[in-house]
Amino acid sequence: MENRKGSGVKKFHKHINRPNKEDFVFGVNSVIETLKSEQEIDKILLLKEMKHVEEIETLARNRGIPVQKVPMEKLNRVTMKNHQGAIAFVSAVNFAILSNVVTSIFESGESPLVLILDRITDVRNFGAICRSAECSGVHAVVVPARGSAQINGDAMKTSSGALNFIPVCRETDLINTVKYLKNSGFQIISCTEKGNDLVYDADYSLPTAIIMGSEEDGISDALIDLSDFKAQIPLKGKVESLNVSVAAGVILFEAVRQKMKQA
């Protein structure tokens, strides 16, 4: 396993993520104290009609944590305990800084492989993708701050522990993230049925970022427009698309096949 990713990057990745004991905390004071701690938070739900929550909103904004104003019914579906109109979803991982990961990979002499997940909302799909990503030598998984699956215990379980070893980077704007990667020398490959290229045509020995799109409507047009390749997986059956976690496995292990052939 050490030879797969290289000793330098492997040291950087080792046990970078830590699972937490709970998936959420509730109550105004508990949410505030969690925001003030170093605990990673996926998102915060606040009651729509709730007033005097400026401290929560300010702390969340300063940390780049999304806040959603929701009706009481949604809060009660999470917990019927005395949540006081405030619930914070705690992440099962510690998020990494993408620029630090990229710098570390280049300094190790490796060619980076990054996976960008555009609005993957199903927790089990997310976990399965991260399992394939870790097994195929992906150096980092990038998710948007909004519109992404909660990284909770279910995601950790579905990943079979892979989330303990692969950095997850949460970015506020995937368009700017892709532009940063392009400026850093990455080729951008969108895995989409809208493309004319095949996933087998790209050269994965180059620094590469692969984009996988949402379960409902695929990759956003803005990200596709920034891509260097629009690569599709050839299908022979009557069903028009693969599950996104299966599609991710196909393209990632094409990258593995090419790298093994070139080694």
From TrEMBL:
CDD domains linked to this entry: SpoU-like_RlmB
* Residue span, RNA 2-O ribose methyltransferase substrate binding domain: 24-96
- From the UniProt record, which GO molecular function terms apply? RNA binding; RNA methyltransferase activity
**Has the keyword DNA-binding been applied to this entry?**
no
The UniProt keywords, alphabetically, are: Methyltransferase, Transferase
InterPro entries documented for this protein: Alpha/beta_knot_MTases, Ribosomal_eL30-like_sf, rRNA_MeTrfase_TrmH, SpoU_MeTrfase, SpoU_subst-bd, tRNA_m1G_MTases_N
The source's domain of life comes to Bacteria
A cellular component term, taken from the record's GO annotations: cytosol
What are its GO biological-process terms?
methylation; RNA processing
- Kindly give the Gene3D superfamilies that the UniProt entry links to this protein: 3.30.1330.30, 3.40.1280.10
Q: What is this protein called?
A: RNA methyltransferase, TrmH family, group 3
Please tell me the species this chain comes from: Leadbetterella byssophila (strain DSM 17132 / JCM 16389 / KACC 11308 / NBRC 106382 / 4M15)
